Amino acid sequence: MLEPMIGSMADELAHLLGDDALVTGSLRSYGSDATQLEGLIRAPEVVVAPGSAEDVAVLVQWAYRNEVALVPRGGGTGFAGGAVPIHGEVVVDMSRLNRVRALDPGLWRIHAEAGLTTATIHRLARENGLYFPPDPGASEQSQLGGNIATNAGGPHAFKYGVTGAWVTGLEAVVPPGELVRVGGPVRKDVAGYDLKSLLIGSEGTLGIITAAWLRLIPAPASRLPVVAGYEQTADACAAIESILASGVVPAAIEFIQGAAVDASRTSFPLTLPDTITLLVIAEVDGQPAETANSREEVRAALAPDSVTLWAPDAAAETAALWRWREGVSLAVAAEHGGKVSEDISVPLDRLREAIDQTVEIGKELCLPACSWGHAGDGNIHSTFLIDANDREDLKRAQLGGRRLHELAIELGGSISGEHGLGWQKRGRLALQWDARALELHGEIKRAFDPKNLMNPGKKT
Amino acid sequence: MLEPMIGSMADELAHLLGDDALVTGSLRSYGSDATQLEGLIRAPEVVVAPGSAEDVAVLVQWAYRNEVALVPRGGGTGFAGGAVPIHGEVVVDMSRLNRVRALDPGLWRIHAEAGLTTATIHRLARENGLYFPPDPGASEQSQLGGNIATNAGGPHAFKYGVTGAWVTGLEAVVPPGELVRVGGPVRKDVAGYDLKSLLIGSEGTLGIITAAWLRLIPAPASRLPVVAGYEQTADACAAIESILASGVVPAAIEFIQGAAVDASRTSFPLTLPDTITLLVIAEVDGQPAETANSREEVRAALAPDSVTLWAPDAAAETAALWRWREGVSLAVAAEHGGKVSEDISVPLDRLREAIDQTVEIGKELCLPACSWGHAGDGNIHSTFLIDANDREDLKRAQLGGRRLHELAIELGGSISGEHGLGWQKRGRLALQWDARALELHGEIKRAFDPKNLMNPGKKT
Question: Which chain B residues have a beta carbon less than 8 Å from that of A194?
Fold first, then answer.
């Protein structure tokens, strides 16, 4: 793209959307996401931050008229390069759409714009005795629109489902620039085809989500975790299945493999034995008495063969535990300077194979490998540790990613449980889907975005 | 359609799918559904019952080759004419696809074919200490495939969500006759666009669902209802909002208007005062001690202004209450020989207006009117009582339906909360959706079914 064209494009957009809408200064931070890989850093030339849903519609109309591709971007905390420009697209920073349009605590619902952070939604719910369960992480940065566009998960999806389960309605701009609304502040709606679910998880390739109506629920009065460490992966996986057999529905069942525990051992709220191969965290929530009972059931399920068993009671300890859990990913990345993490999901009875095979694949590629993730949902962050500046390491890790995707499908699972395909996994859907389903995928894309200007090349 | 053509079509299908697959004898029962309206009884000429998912694929290939339209049909218990042939389509009876492909109680999941009845799924779950929450009614007749194809709701959708919330994967035949699979025995999958949700609720217009992977959960040990009667609709609606303010999450919050209670008063397990304008049933479930506590909260929320307050403890009483609740629809229909019931949904704070306006619209059209339904979800079965053989009555009731749809949209709701559009509400989506969303609806239909042979004319 030539300098004068960029200049005139920026001028035009400032004229259309207001000077405030043109993001100036260094745009480098818009060129990557949480993957932080050299191959995925491509700073954009132009970034706009529209101030309203109507302005997003004006922007998409302009893009369609001028055949300019757009990359919508929330907090930039994704793990698949979904919000990263690839071929000179204009990046659409959604952070100015940060109004709460309506908050009705008595009706358990909120109407919020896409640019609100996850933490803000959590806080607004909490201040009103309510709870918005999706907790995909990076809550101070990640935005509602991005969470919906990736259908983000998180630890508590085991009991509460992923982000989409809490969306009763969406407002979105779809090409060639129409502001449409599907659903709303209603809890049931089967009038048309489920366009709402089609937009959820579409990673900005079908349109730009501008606002959502969300369900909330009363905040559980109590939450109590159990932490158990095992020396054998098989014992840990058997213990996880024992939780299900106990009849308790935990809010979360997480696992962290020994090598990942090692990377963050010093910040764990307890001294852990060196011999742990797999750490399991299960949490129950609800009314206090019931939660205490359920926790005992979970503790009993996790006890056999455990070498560590910890059941903290203080809220501060639980908070410290989850802070540690959220830090695992960064701690692992820091070990060798970089990592490539996947997010395959498998049926729960294949969890052990997925964990073991991750390490095997790493061995074959001469890369240290480990995993952690949402055990109850069979959603595993299989990870290869690399030197982020070593192109050979990156290449081998990407080959490992391919092997993991094949493994996920072999085990009856999915190549992506919560990150989406983005740019990183482009072209991989063909591994998972039948030819006709894949064809329909393409036809849906063409129906929404006939000029292929909405986040092109992603989610394929 | 001419007699010889029908004869040869039947022969051809018997040859293709086996003699067993050709349904013989009177086909009249295939010509209507639970609406039981004269205008919606059109007995088909040919009914086939394929014996396997592969045979469904063969059938759709045949239909596409010969340009014959198909109407897939489960238990025929729908309320929108969705499974009724209109222009001589071949009806596809799914009841022979009734195999449980896998039941994994320890992993809380089942892989079931589309023709299994809802009652069978409920029983299989129950026998294994588990629970499949969707309870759209007519459980002995309604089938899994039909429930998924309409995304059926029911009373307990308030806490547990509608049928689609329990489907982790689908197998379906889509034109021109491919057996595709989206999702599976995995709890998280964001690889492709959400084709699974697109098929859920598509009423057989995009393809024929042949099997599903379902999530189950441990059965709640206890369920306790509270029944409260009110003389004023406003008091009842205020009481319903008080339940939400109490912080309890009930499993169900139902309402039945006085006129509907009157139609079934004799079978109610308790003697109710004549002055009741609105009856509310709220139920809580969970562990016994917690459930008892929550029930007290619900009772306290419902008590003010109530003229009846009943909180039965015996499981037999609870069962009798729900049997009565399920019979309300038939009892009301019996009053004048027929009824036209809608299923609009509105935001909860507009429930009172929807209830009052239903009666007003009835008055203007000189038809007795009343409503009942899933109060917590704002999902109302607004009903006009008619003489089913009186064409004038039917016409006025249909006009009333149109007025109700306009009302639902005016109140920020949906023209269908759980029945779908079927044939009865054809053309009405245009009232609710933006032009571009409606256009995308049509393009999705064309992408899946370019020859418009899958349940044509429905879901528009």
Answer: 151, 164, 194, 197-198, 200-201
